[in-house]
């Protein structure tokens, strides 16, 4: 596992920029992240380690990004 420290508005580029994670806001114990990804990359949100979803919950194309 790679652990990084980022500040608000800093980004992390993954897979040669096909995935970009931006720290949108840090408030108290919460961090808001923005994720941009190519249309062919599914984005899955997993609330707990036991929860799984066989299909992507959302993709950039579905959100109009």
TrEMBL record:
GO CC annotation: cytosol
Q: Which GO terms describe its biological process?
A: mRNA catabolic process; negative regulation of translational initiation; regulation of carbohydrate metabolic process
Q: Which UniProt keywords are present, listed alphabetically?
A: Cytoplasm, RNA-binding, Translation regulation
The residues forming the signal peptide are none
Q: Which GO terms describe its molecular function?
A: mRNA 5'-UTR binding
Tell whether Cytoplasm is among the UniProt keywords.
yes
Q: Name one Pfam family in it.
A: CsrA
Its recorded name reads Carbon storage regulator
> Highest lineage ranks of the organism?
Bacteria, Pseudomonadati, Planctomycetota, Planctomycetia, Planctomycetales
């Amino acid at each position: 596992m790679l652990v990084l420290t980022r500040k608000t508005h800093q980004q992390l580029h993954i897979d040669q920029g096909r995935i970009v994670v931006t720290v949108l806001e840090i408030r108290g114990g919460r961090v808001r992240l923005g994720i941009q990804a190519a249309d062919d990359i599914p984005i899955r949100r997993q609330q707990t380690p036991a929860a799984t979803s066989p299909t992507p919950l959302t993709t950039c194309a579905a959100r109009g990004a």
